[in-house]
Design goal:
This protein is mainly alpha-helical and 177 residues long. The chain is 75% helix and 0% strand. It starts with 6 loop residues before the first helix and ends in an 8-residue tail after the last helix.
Length: 177
């Protein structure tokens, strides 16, 4: 595949500015998916280890994807929200797990909003930071749904993601992949 170093150059040439990451991240993602699938089959506490890794990668990856690297405070805030969601799901009965995730998400969006409003940055930059922070926290917190879901559904879903990501990374013709 042709890789563009500059997204503006890629747009000018009529290509997508999104750079294909290649096989290494796909293999790592597939490995994490298989690890999640296997851990879900063992039990809820076994799932916690790979889930925390997934949440950390999600929190950091969203800022990296948006070109806001390093954003230590935003990453730490999103990851802390994910850990709070994990604790909330583990603390309640199975039927209240989704409610615990939604409650954590609401509280974390409010906390992120308050912290971003206190920023002395340029208004446009503040809004960009707010959107990246809220999205990162929301995605990392939503990962706690793996704890709230049925273990067989988590195993099947994580294994399916692992297979799909690996297949997409193979150098196949576009219609096939």
């Amino acid at each position: 595949t042709v890789r563009a170093v500059d997204p503006a150059q890629a747009r000018a040439e009529g290509r997508s500015p999104i750079i294909d990451p290649g096989p290494q991240p796909a293999i790592l993602t597939a490995a994490l998916g298989l690890l999640l699938a296997g851990a879900a089959a063992v039990g809820e506490l076994a799932l916690l280890g790979p889930l925390i890794v997934l949440q950390a990668l999600t929190a950091a990856g969203w800022f990296r994807l948006n070109g806001m690297w390093p954003a230590r405070q935003g990453i730490a805030l999103a990851f802390l929200g994910a850990l709070v969601a994990d604790a909330a799901v583990l603390a309640v009965d199975d039927t209240y797990g989704p409610g615990a995730i939604i409650g954590t998400l609401g509280a974390w969006v409010l906390l992120t909003l308050v912290l971003q409003l206190r920023s002395h940055a340029d208004p446009d930059e503040r809004m960009y930071g707010l959107m990246a922070s809220v999205a990162s926290a929301a995605l990392a917190i939503a990962c706690a749904g793996y704890l709230a879901a049925d273990s067989s559904a988590v195993s099947v879903g994580a294994a399916a993601v692992a297979v799909a990501v690996f297949t997409r990374a193979l150098p196949l013709p576009t219609p096939v992949s």
